[in-house]
Amino acid sequence: MHKKMAFSFPDEVLEHVFSFIQSDKDRNSVSLVCKSWYEIERWCRRKVFVGNCYAVSPRMVIKRFPEFRSIELKGKPHFADFNLVPDGWGGYVFPWIVEMAGAVPWLEEIKLKRMVVTDESLELIAKSFKNFKVLILSSCEGFSTDGLAAIAASCKNLKELDLRDCEVDDLSGHWLSHFPDTYTSLVALNISCLGSDEVSLSALERLVGRCTSLKTLRLNRAVPLDKVANILRRAPQLVEFGTGTYAAELRPDVYSDFAGAFSSCKELKSLSGFWDVVPDYLPAIYPVCSKLTSLNLSYATIQSPELIKLVSHCPNLQRLLVLDYIEDSGLEALASSCKDLQELRVFPSDPFGVEPNVSLTEQGLVAVSSGCPKLQSVLYFCRRMSNEALVTVAKNCPNFTRFRLCIIEPRTADYLTLEPLDVGFGAIVQYCKDLQRLSLSGLLTDRVFEYIGTYAKKLEMLSVAFAGDSDLGLHHVLSGCESLRKLEIRDCPFGDKALLANAAKLETMRSLWMSSCAVSFGACKLLAQKMPRLNVEVIDERGPPDSRPESCSVDKLYIYRTVAGSRFDMPPFVWTMEDDPSLQLS
Amino acid sequence: MSSENGKLLPETDAGGLNFEATELTLGLPGESRVTSDGVAKLGSKRGFSETVDLSLGDNKNTNKFGQSQIDVPEAAKSPVSKAQVVGWPPVRGYAKRRTKSCKYVKVAVDGAPYLRKVDLEMYNTYQQLLTSLEDMFSCFTIRNYLSDKKLDQVNGIEYVPTYEDKDGDWMLVGDVPWQMFVESCKRLRLMKSSEAVGLAPRTPPKCSSAS
Asked: Subunit details for this protein (chain B) (predicted)?
């Protein structure tokens, strides 16, 4: 290191200073200051975040950060959650595990989102990392309980095993028994995604009993109510708990057992689960409600009156996930009881029904926006909306960071004026200056995109469906949204012009998804030619894109920046534009 | 299964769309167009109690961008649930919220390069399931760009819905009572009717055309 400056610090001092800098963005900025800072920073980065597993290769990551202990990887595009990304698309973690097994033996944490994880990968993790502590798999698939058994058997220092929203092949509930009797270090266990045959209750009880540091336990729905009490009694120190399934009828002995167990848990702050909950059982949890900050009732099919009673016992609630059974009346009660509310998600109980089955409208959203001054994050499914309501919400909540509205029927107009909802969403982006994430719905013209491009300067992620009139809409977004990282679009009349005119913008973003739009194959080829550091991938089940005219629209398009070149694991229905011989010109 | 490997079938041809299947139809086995030599592989099973005639890739659903899209008026025909646009509304694991169990099975269609998944718990009858499959695979419509003509149904290829049960046997969909089917079905395959020889039932079912 060259000590050219009079006041430069020794490496150790800088390293110590950098150790207080945890966020990736800040670390990335630090590494750009000068070469010596780059060098120091890269040797002391302990947590690596890779937002797109195909943007960089495992070897490149290991080469730059030889001493990391924690890695977070994301695979499939977000729209994979809604079945828009076909099976076999990619996102395999195995190549990463292989490279890390050899080069990063002291790896402690792996966090994966939307990736394909095989039993082979889990087995390799189990045997390669002696100090492995945290495995968080979010919306992953491809593994079975056999892989989990390998982790349980080998990872003596495991603290966290979290399988949120994963699809696991059920083979046997006995994987839990593979945790040795001497194993006691579990702090967090989330198995809520597992099916009926996948958990041995007696093994679970023993495990919970001996792991006295257990703070988070999310059970799966197969754990019946009468067993829950046994488990809870063994873990009165729990802070986060997800119940199993509730029995269908009220049995007084089960109820009092359950209520007793609950009341001994003085530290509970977060509850979830509640599958098939019967209202009569709810009072059992009232004793813990006053301390609750997070409540996930999105599986609870209880009606508004019971929901109102429940939330009125929770004055400290910060986060609520609930079905639209809560209705406008329930949201009004929420607005008056829960003044600390920061995040609200209202899911549809009957998303595919033709007629509304509950009385949940824009009024509920307006009520919460008015009553809850700290509200920052909203996900709201409803069947009608008005510009007036959206403007009111925007003015009430200038602190929104995330606003996702899904009006269930595509292209639904303002129900009062029959106009598009451009002005309403325009108000959201204008008043909410810190908005990072936005999802649009309803009838929308190019105008809404003009508002977004003009005002949404901090917007990082935008989801668009069935909206817009022309390429101008897409152009407004790509040219105006300075902070945009992820853009996902489906069923919009956006085509070649805006994309090609803003090609350079795409390299400043993580990714762009466009499906059922009007982007031609010719434009994809041109884009790939112009921008060698983008992977332009076409997903099309109709066969190779060059078997159709170049002006033909592609079915699905996924574009992302990368320093790793084309990927090697593309399935037959994904085409990259790189191999096209016609690109040999100029 | 060739469809799962994504291998292109002989009728696909890089020189243009020579797909024969521009209008795909799903029919339960036993329909007059299904080749049947009367050999019932599933001798112990009963005949069909209902016959459904489905069309995949109905051209009138294409919008101005040449993309297949579900028309809202079409959706209104299905009284219990809307004909679904794939992935809309954007709800995850929806069925897990509402029903006691979630029964996702993979659906392979001969000739389609990739699989889809359906949650059997979301349906109450075979008709609903098959209608939904029809909508889901409507993007399988192969438009003949060169001549821009629509092939009529007579020349379309028919698909026979089959499933693999818990024992690993391939059965015809519609054979057993609905709930029993939901419990035993591990995955679905829409097989070309020409390959479904041997799966046809002994008793001819009643035919009803619903196209």
From this structure: Homodimers and heterodimers.
Give pLDDT, residue B50: 33
Q: How many A/B residue pairs have CB atoms within 8 Å? A: 122
Inform me whether the pLDDT recorded for A535 exceeds 60.
yes
Distance from CA of B184 to the nearest CA of A (A): 15
pLDDT of residue B113: 74
**Residue range A210-235: mean pLDDT, rounded:** 91
Q: With beta carbons under 8 A apart, name residues in chain A contacting B22.
A: none
Of B62, B89, B64, whose CA–CA distance to A441 is shortest?
B89
> Which segments of chain B are extended strands (E)?
24-27, 53-56, 104-109, 116-119, 158-165, 170-172, 185-192
Sign of CA dihedral A357, A362, A363, A365: positive
Sign (positive or negative) of CA dihedral A38, A43, A48, A53: positive
Contact A572 B6 (CB under 8 A): yes
What is this structure's pTM?
0.79
Average the pLDDT over each of A108-122, A311-325, A470-484, B147-161 and give the range with the smallest value: B147-161
Task: Report the gap between the CA of B99 and the closest CA in chain A (Å).
Answer: 8
CA–CA min distance B37, chain A (Å): 33
SS3 track for B122-162: HCCCHHHHHHHHHHHCHHHCCCCCCCCCCCCHHHCCEEEEE
Q: Residue B24: pLDDT above 90?
A: no
Q: What residue in A sits closest to B65 (Cα-Cα)?
A: A518
Gap from B39 CA to chain A (nearest CA, Å):
34
With a cut of 50, say whether residue A80 has pLDDT above it. yes
Test A88 with B115 for CB contact under 8 angstroms: yes
As a whole number of angstroms, the distance between CA A333 and CA A507 comes to 46
Residue A296 tokens, joined? 């996930």
Which residue of A196, A198, A381, A516 is the best one to mutate when testing the B interface, meaning the one whose CB has the most B CBs within 10 A? A516
Binary contact (B85, A410; C-beta < 8 A): yes
Q: Quick one: which of B93, B91, B74, B94 has its CA closest to B83?
A: B74
Name residues whose C-beta falls within 8 Å of residue A221's C-beta, 6 or more positions apart in sequence.
A192, A196, A244, A245, A273, A275, A276, A299
Q: Which of B69, B97, B145 sits opposite A298 (nearest CB)?
A: B97
Per the prediction, chain B carries an average pLDDT of: 57
> Distance between CA atoms of B45 and B42, rounded to whole angstroms?
6
Question: Across A475-539, where does the E strand assignment appear?
Answer: 486-490, 511-515, 534-539
Residues of chain A with Cβ-Cβ distance to B67 below 8 Å are 491, 516, 553, 555
Query: How does pLDDT run across B102-118, given as a tens digit for each residue?
Result: 677 888 888 777 777 78
